[in-house]
Amino acid sequence: MSKKQSKKNKNKSKKKKSFNDQDTLKGVLDITRSGVGYVVIPNADNDILVRPGDFNTALHGDTVRVRVVNSGGRQSGRQQGKVVEVVQRKQTEFLGKIEIGKTFAFFIADVDKPMPDIFVPLNNLKEAKDNDQVIVRIVEWQPNKKPVGEVVQVMEKGDANDMAMKEILMQNGFPLFFPEEVIEESERIPDTIPQAEINNRKDVREILTFTIDPVDAKDFDDAISFRVLKNGNYEIGVHIADVGHYVEPDTALDKEAYNRATSVYLPDRVLPMLPERISNELCSLRPKEDKLTFSAIFQITPKGEVKQHWLGKTVIHSDHRFTYEQVQEIIEQQEGLYKDEVLILNELAQKFRKQRFKKGAINFSSQEVRFKLDEKGKPIGIMIKESKEAHQLIEEFMLLANRTVAESVSKIKFNKKDIPFPYRVHDTPDEMKLEPFAAFARKYGHEFDTKSPEGIARSFNQMLKDVQGKPEQHVLEQLGIRTMAKAIYTSENIGHYGLGFKYYCHFTSPIRRYPDVLVHRVLFDILNEKIEPDKKMEQKCKHCSDKERSAMESERAGNKYKQVEYMQNFLGDEFEGVISGVAAFGFWVETIEHKCEGLVSINSLLEYDDFRLVEGDYSLAGMRSGRKFRMGDKVRIKVIAANLSKRQLDYEWVITATTGDDKVEANLQRPAYPIPKKSAKGKGGRPGGKSKKK
Question: How far is residue 121's CA from residue 199's CA, in Å, rounded to a whole number?
Answer without folding.
Answer: 53
